[in-house]
């Protein structure tokens, strides 16, 4: 059975946007993403891939459980933003900006 599933690193969109917009350097980006340890995510991009996914387990969550998970997720998100901000300040003058990398490749 052929499966079309892509493994990609979960990326912190705000940090990536800041890099591509020229606000932070490559060292700030790499160190931020490394420190956040965001794990991996699987994406099924086609109908064929979706049909080949096997759900191994299902669990029902109460409204209270969902609310607690939302609160925990928001807390972790804010901690991640704070950590990324500190790393970006640390590497503010180290590394290269996106436009500098592009120019070097010309």
From TrEMBL:
This is DUF3990 domain-containing protein. It comes from Hominibacterium faecale. The lineage of its organism: Bacteria, Bacillati, Bacillota, Clostridia, Peptostreptococcales.
């Amino acid at each position: 059975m052929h499966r079309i599933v892509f493994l990609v690193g979960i990326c912190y969109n705000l940090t990536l946007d800041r890099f591509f917009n020229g606000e932070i350097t490559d060292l700030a980006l790499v160190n931020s993403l490394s420190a956040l340890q965001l794990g991996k995510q699987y994406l099924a991009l086609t109908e064929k891939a979706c049909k080949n996914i096997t759900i191994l387990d299902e669990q029902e969550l109460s409204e209270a459980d969902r609310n607690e998970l939302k609160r925990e997720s928001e807390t972790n998100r804010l901690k991640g933003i704070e950590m990324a901000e500190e790393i970006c300040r640390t590497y503010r003058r180290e590394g290269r900006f996106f436009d500098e990398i592009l120019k070097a490749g010309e």
